[in-house]
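Pasting as-is:
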Amino acid sequence: MNVRLFGCGKFRRLVHEREDRDLGKGELRFMAQHRSVCPECRSMESTSSMALNMLRAATLDVEAAPMFEERVIRRWRVQNVRESIGYWSPAFFGAGIACFALFAALALIGKPVESKRSSLPAGEARIFDPHRVYPNLDLREVRYNR
């Protein structure tokens, strides 16, 4: 059989995954083949299993705190909720409203001010009408100094 020696990373990953789940037939076959040709991985597997057995033996003597499992499950559920979009949707909605308000304020600030007719002064310029009679101005009496 031709076993690749560069499968050490996969072998080590499978050693750790074996504790969390049942491995498939192909994975078990790969591990057996790799174990037979790689002394480093054999040593690592035995060291890992020995350390895990020591840890299991140490935890059997420790009594869990009351309601420990319920607290762990509650924290796990809270974490799942916080990772969902439903948890963050009010924040996104508020941010959208804030952006809209900011753009509306900027649009109003940038708009030029329009002057109304009623705000013009009383003495506005008008076209001179020569045929109109102006009572205070009599041009016949004006004398020109030369």
